[in-house]
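hi! just following up on the protien thing from before. the input was this:
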Amino acid sequence: MTGHAVKEAAVDVRRQILGVLARELKVDISELDVKDGLIVFKHGRVDYSQVRNRYNKEHRGWPGLAKGREPLTFQEAARIAYLARGTIIGRGKYKPAELGGTHKGAAVGTSPAYGCSAQVVEVSVDMETGKITVEKMTDAHDCGFAINRTSVEGQMQGSLSMGLGEALFEEVKFDEKGRILNSNLAEYKIATSLDMPNVEPIIVESHEPYGPFGAKEVGEGAIMPTIPAILNAVYDATGIRFQELPLTPERVFMALRARQQAKAADES
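and the predicted 3d structure came back as:
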């Protein structure tokens, strides 16, 4: 959902920057456009030498400064706009469409599109102590068009970290009067960098017609398969289906011991 609001805010920033540039160059803003990081003049040449000279004087000694008749860059235009107006703030908004529309999220009305994830998790279980170690996690996520692949991979890795924490560590404990017993990070356990295994993110791209530039979510959706994948891996290792989280060593150990006692009782 935020993608549409971010896109609208970016368009607002672009409009403000081109507006300042148009006034500096004494042309109509409709004559200006941005393509591949460069300012495009739709009809004929425009003398932007004074704008470039101001920028180059401010950045004397910087590498890669444009010279002469090289195309004016959006970076130069953005700096000129900053000098004229200060910090450029763009604003955007998004409101979910009405229920019953044709978009994928019409049933609940919150999002125009949803991503899909598939995950594979490898774990080892110490049968003597019940300690679970997640060895490797592989996540494939359909995010539509990946506008920023590094950010997409970061979101996927973050989701797996949160899912691992929910599966193995995180638990709010209450006393008999309903007071929280572990209300700080010393007692409320979360996954740390030492608990994270190697993560292989696989970006699956598609085109989403209802998303900004064909993109869709890679936020909460990426966490959905993590807990089931861990539970299924633990079942494959131990043969026990757990119905309660987190899978602390104590909980796993007690389940293993209960199975051993039940087996011994059957044999006797």
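The CA atoms of residues 22 and 213 lie 27 Å apart.
The longest helix spans residues 2-25.
cheers
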